[in-house]
Fold this protein.
Amino acid sequence: NSGTLSGLNSSENAVPADAKNLRVKLVLLGDSGVGKSCIVLRFVRGQFDATSKVTVGASFLSQTIALQDSTTVKFEIWDTAGQERYSALAPLYYRGAGVAVIVYDITSPESFKKAQYWVKELQKHGSPDIVMALVGNKADLHEKREVQTEDGMELAEKNGMFFIETSAKTADNINQLFEEIGKRLPRPAPSS
Ligand code: GDP
């Protein structure tokens, strides 16, 4: 679907707009079903829709937040459903991305394994200064947990990533995820 994908070029610029108003392309990675779309909808619209249908192809949403230091960050969020089909386009998907968020489902060891795969992919294709976050989603499903918090922490630590467990369903840690990413973005050098 070239119509959808042509938009990929529009947000190549990962360079902050200015010192107080940052703008960054954020790509979401992770197994299908881990809750990527729900995390984005929770963050952007404040909603959780358990029946939300997975979008076909690449979708794009943006959201601006204000940080405590009065910096604003505009996230241009890329979420591709079934992105394996687009693997030939991976370099295009990653290009210009200042942030990569790798999501797994704490009830699914397979999705955690897949997260490890995405870490390697990013190290191959991502820019060296990309801010990486590892997210264990569906933290509300305690009784079904199969991936321990420590395992997520360890993977993140080994790869210089920020780690957090979230629930798109209860909204737990969703805003925190984006705030913490915002804090870790490189600030432009003063221009004088
Ligand atoms: P994606 O394929 O990664 O984009 O996953 P979706 O966002 O489409 O979510 C897949 C399924 O997981 C849906 O049925 C959601 O309702 C469910 N889901 C997503 N996030 C959560 C969560 O935090 N908790 C629970 N219990 N279910 C979730």
Observations:
- The first strand starts at residue 21 and ends at 29.
